[in-house]
Structures are given as structure tokens and as C-alpha cells.
Amino acid sequence: MKHPDTYKGLEVVVLGLAKSGVQVAKVLHRLGAVVTANDQKEREQCPEASELEALGISVLYGGHPDDLIHPGVKLLVKNPGIPYTVPPVQKALELGIRVVTEVEVAYHICEAPIIGITGSNGKTTTTTWVGKLLDAAGLKPIVAGNIGTPLSEAAADAEKGNWMVVELSSFQLKGTQDFRPTVACLLNIAETHLDYHGGMDDYIASKAKLFENQGPEDIAVLNWDDPVCRGLVPYMKGKVLPFSLTEHLQEGVYADPSYVPDVEDDIRRDIVYRDGSGVIHPILSVAELGIPGRFNVDNALAACAIALAAGAPLSALGEPLSHFRGVEHRLEFVAKHDGVSYYNNSKATNAKATQMSLSSFKQPIVLIAGGLDRGADYLELVPVLQGRVKAVVLLGQTKEKLAEASKKAGIEHIELVDNGEDAATALIEAVNKSASLAGPGDIVLLSPACASWDMFKSYEERGRIFKEAVHKLK
User: Under CATH, which architecture does the 11-100 domain have?
Assistant: First the structure.
């Protein structure tokens, strides 16, 4: 453990008893901090409280006591999703108390070098892929963070011989101060989470914190095709290693810029790495990648660049790139029924993600979409809907907005599903309606373009219900 005495004797408040909150409370307690955990939910809704109390950690629930935050508190570790506007956070900031997420704690105790991966879309796929590439290279990766295992839990057990491969959200990064990854990657930027950040400026600034503390010996992997990513180059202190689908780079990882995913002959292109001396090293053909879609070529380029930055040899990259079959809820093939192929892309929680998934198919598509209303009008979907989507089945808070966008795209078959009191029943009805609208050779695609929280606990729950409904089709 890098700095085992960093938190010894400090009075720390952990705000939020979700998975990461429980783990960081346990880690801090083990490091000798005086920990108080707090959640606004009632005791019966906090089953994690018993585990913490058994360790001697004070747990307060049912609200935020007025004296929770006081001058004796030295650190507030908050759940990433808790807004900075809630009273305990506001009071801590007023008192000059450090407010961080568990990512900051994990950084201070982690022995292993850290690879941080963020972006609006593709984080989980890229992070998982990097883990497989480093594993094939014998570099002993530990995959953690927003992808599943809380970073503080993984960091406490990491050793110098490991590489910590971490998926990071803007919520997590906003609450960092000293965090410094050895390799940092920004995949892309799209308009999302504006209800939390209040605008794009804060969202981009939160993503950019990934690079804030890097030094000349660190590496920043950037999407050269994304203007926001490219615009951050003047602020980079580490070496920039770009990846691109549209340019022959002087140094970096790229695919032939004439690659067009809708033309079969043009996918016979190589992904290559051009090193600092100008030598071009072929890695594999785009056609050999294990998962479809132009955006997954982007993810593969990023994963290659990250793996090379971590020291993986070129010879180790080909097999895991071609054998990887993707991550659940990310353009996941579910089943083929009566000649119709069903795909689960529940993780598409913004319009850009849905655009990318729609562009992955040449076949006619019946699209299931809709969810939490965050104020978008979805008109950016109109061009990709035209000529590609034969019918839409819509549900959730945004169904009327998406119906309007579908009309502008000239789609004749627009079905709206009543959300009702049971979200599962509504989604099952959407699947059944889609099946009736699709014919042999068509695709039924769940790609909501919205978060799930208006109807479901998570995008995972939404995806699982979709898959169950598909498997029950008669």
C-alpha cells in the first residue's frame, strides 16, 4: 500500500451507502480513520449498514443530521452521484473541508500504476478490452472502477506488478484533486449528464481532470477525431498518443481513413501503429475485430493505444482484439427469432450512443427507445433514422419527443407504449409490438437514447428485462 498512514486518525464522513461507499468506508477504517457513514435512506433500506457497524463504524441513516459536518471533519468522501448542492456537501465546502470521491482515496493507497479511461460513450467496452490486451501481454491487469469493482477495494489489494485499469465517470473525476494516472484516455465527448453538471463546460472540465496532474513521463491517449478531445492538447503535460479513424497519424494508432463501415470492400483495412520513428506496424484488419460497429473500431484503436502505452508488445494485441465478443448491454446479440435478430444496447443512455448503434447495421431496424427526460429534443437522431429505421416503438418520459423526431425522419410506423405502473410489463409490450413490426432479415434493437431511471433501477435491469422478453417470444 502506497501511503498507509495518509488517513490515520482523520475524522472522515462517507456520504452514501452504495457499493463504493461501503467499500471506501471499510478501507478508511482499516487505515485507521475515524469513519462515520451516512445515508438518507431509512435503516431497512440500508442492508450494508450491519456490515459496517459490525466493524465498529458509526452509521447514520434516515437523513443528514445537522451536526454531521463540523470543523473536526477533515474529509468528506461522497458517492459520485450525489449532487454538490446537497446540504452536507455545501456545508463541507463552506468549512473548507476536502470533498472527494473514492477515486481520490484509491489513488493515495494504490501501489500499482493506474490507467484511467473516460468518455461519454465506449468506456466499459474499452476498459474491458484493455484488461484483456494487458492480460494477454502478461501485465497482470486489475479492472475496476465504474465498471463494477469499487476502485478503493481493488486498489487496497493491488501490487507494483499489477496495472490498475479503471473506468471513470465524470461524476467520479469531478471529485478528484491529486489523482494522477500513468496512462489517461479520453474516448469522446457528447452532450450528456447536463442535469448533474449544469452545462457542457463543467462536464468537459470534469472529464479533463483526468489529465490535470499528469507529468512529462505520463501518457495521454486522445481521440484525434473528436474536436473537444483534440482541443485539450495545448493543456496536456504528458506525452500525447492519439488514435484516429480518419487520419494517417505521424505517431499513434489509426485505421485507414478510407474505412467506411457501410461498404464491405472498404473494411479490408489494417489497424496500425506508427511509432515515433515513422515505422508503421500492422496490428490486424478491421474486419477481424470480434465486435461490430464503427464505434467499436474507435474503441479498439483506443484500447491498442492504451495497451502500447502500458508496455504491451504489438504481438500480444491481435488475438484479444479478434476474440473479444463485447460487454453485456452494449450492442449485445440476444437471439434470432423467426428470422429477426434482436440486439440489446440498453447502455445507450444518450442520443450519440444510439446514433452509433444504428449505424452499425445495414439491415432494416425496428428501434425500441425512450426513457428519462433530461431536456434533449433528439432531433440529432433524424438523419440516422432516415432510410435505416422502418419502425419505432417508444416508451418512457421521452416517448413524445422521440415520436416527433421519428415523424421528421419520415418513419410511418410509430408505436407508443403506455408506461403504466409496471415498467417490466411496458417493456415486454414494446418487445411484442416490435416483433409484430419486424420481418425476416430485420433487426430489433433496444437502444433507448435515454437513461433508465424514469422506469427502471438501472440500464442493466432494463437490458435484462428486454432479453427475457425476447427469449419468451412465441
Answer: 3-Layer(aba) Sandwich (3.40)
* Beta-bridge mates of residue 15: 38, 78
What's the pLDDT score for residue 149?
83
Q: How far apart are CA 117 and CA 165, in angstroms?
A: 8
The predicted-structure confidence for 154-172, as pLDDT tens digits, reads as follows 998 899 999 999 999 999 9
- Does 167 or 293 have the greater pLDDT score? 167
pLDDT score for 172: 94
Please tell me what DSSP assigns to residue 245.
S
Q: State how far the Cα of 276 lies from the Cα of 273, in Å rounded to an integer.
A: 10
Indicate the burial class of 134 (C-beta count within 10 angstroms; 0-12, 13-18, 19 or more).
buried
Q: Which residues of 56-71 are buried (b: 16+ CB within 10 A; e: fewer)?
A: ebebbbeebeeebbee
Domain ranges of the chain: 11-100, 104-323, 332-471
User: What is the rounded distance in angstroms from the CA atom of residue 446 to the CA atom of residue 264?
Assistant: 25
Binding-site sequence positions: 119-125
Query: In whole numbers, what is the pLDDT of the chain averaged over residues?
Result: 92
Annotated binding site for ATP: 119-125
As beta bridge partners, residue 141 has: 163
What are the start-end ranges of the H helices in 77-215? Answer: 87-94, 102-109, 123-136, 151-157, 170-174, 194-197, 200-208
Residue burial 272-292, b: 16+ Cβ < 10 Å; e: rest: bbbeeeeeeeebbbbebbbbb
Q: Are strands 389-394 and 183-186 parallel, antiparallel or unpaired?
A: unpaired
Q: Of 116, 58, 65, 56, which Cα lies nearest the Cα of 88? A: 65
| Per-residue model confidence as pLDDT tens digits over 218-239 | 999 999 999 999 999 999 999 9
Is the CATH number 3.20.20.80 carried by domain 332-471? no
- Containing H/E element for 49? helix 48-54
Which residues in 168-216 belong to E strands, given as ranges?
183-186
| CA proximity to 346, closest of 420, 447, 417 | 447
- Helix extents (H) in 381-450: 382-385, 399-408, 423-437
Name the pTM for this structure.
0.80
Half-sphere exposure of 114 (CA within 13 A, CB side): 30
CA distances from 291 to 41, 74, 129, 285, 435 (A): 41, 47, 11, 13, 24
Q: Which CATH superfamily is domain 104-323 in?
A: Mur-like, catalytic domain (3.40.1190.10)
Tell me the three cell numbers of residue 260.
467506411
* Chain center to CA of 147: 7
